[in-house]
Write a structure and sequence with these properties.
Length: 121
């Protein structure tokens, strides 16, 4: 016999605290509402976030650069609008020597990954 489980993420088992059965008065459709007072997947994410240093680490032959993003945007798409399309991470660099170092890293990364440089954007 298989143990019944609830998972938002594979291998992270959840338990609801309440269940409510309802009917959509407009369509007559049946609705099951599960209420979770706590989600283990969120707690796991919080623990992971606590380890996040708020910095992006770039490593190459010159060493490691630690840059703090000035903005991060998540874009979703797909038929349901819930597929991650892309993440845009912006880093503002004030000092010219830091910018030059980041550019050396970007050129090395592009070369190692078969990418090209485009000044169009």
């Amino acid at each position: 016999m298989t143990q019944p489980t609830i998972e938002f993420f594979d291998g992270v088992y959840e338990a609801f605290d309440e269940v409510s059965l309802r009917r959509n008065t407009r369509t007559g459709g049946k609705i099951v509402v599960m209420i979770f007072r706590e989600l283990k997947c969120i707690e796991a994410f919080k623990a992971l976030r606590a380890q996040f240093s708020n910095a992006l680490r770039l490593k190459d032959e010159e060493g490691e650069i630690s840059v703090e993003p000035s903005g991060v945007k998540f874009y979703f798409g797909g038929p349901e609008g819930d597929d991650l399309d892309r993440v845009e991470c912006s880093v503002e660099i004030d000092r010219e020597d830091h910018f030059e170092r980041v550019m050396r890293f970007l050129h090395r990364f592009a070369e190692a990954n078969g990418m090209g440089y485009d000044e169009g954007k």
